[in-house]
Structure formats: structure tokens, C-alpha cells
Amino acid sequence: MHDTRFPILRTFILVLILAIGGATIATLSDGNLIAIGTVLLIAFVKARFVILDFMELRHGQRGMALSLLAWCALLLLVALARPLLVSYLA
């Protein structure tokens, strides 16, 4: 049965689980590139939920939602560039 009283609660719980999972992976990663990429991917998924559900852009302003998602993707690519450069130069 779908709970219509708190439609955002399911998304909140999912974002919370993703945050705990990302923190756990980051703690245990020891600088592994695959773990860093996984944490950044989890961060993008969390940002997507926040943008679409908490900012209520899922059914509204598609241009705003797409531009915010593109901005998050750009920031995550820049964040991934550093460990890639460090591993390449080392």
C-alpha cells in the first residue's frame, strides 16, 4: 500500500541510506579509485533526489532541473579529476 500522507519520506530514507553507504565506502576505501568513483556516483544520485524531489522539480521546471543536474555532474567530474591525476602522475 502506498502511503500518500508522507510522499517525501521514502525519498528521505533512501537519501539517508545512500549517505550512510557513501560514508562507509569512503571510510574503508583507502584511496582506491573505484571506491572514490562509487562515492561520487552515490553523491550524484543523492543530489538528483534532492533536486527532483525536495526542490520539487520532478514535474515542474525541466530546464532548471537539467541545469542543476548538469552543474552537479560537472562538479563531480572535477572532483574525480584530482584522484585520476594523482594516480596517473604517481
From TrEMBL:
It is found in: Cell membrane. GO terms for cellular component: plasma membrane. Keywords: Cell membrane, Membrane, Transmembrane, Transmembrane helix. InterPro entries: Cyt_c_oxidase_su4_prok. The keyword Transcription regulation does not apply. It is a multi-pass membrane protein. Its main location: membrane. The chain crosses the membrane at residues 7-27, 33-51, 63-85. This is Nitric oxide reductase NorF protein. It comes from Aliirhizobium cellulosilyticum.
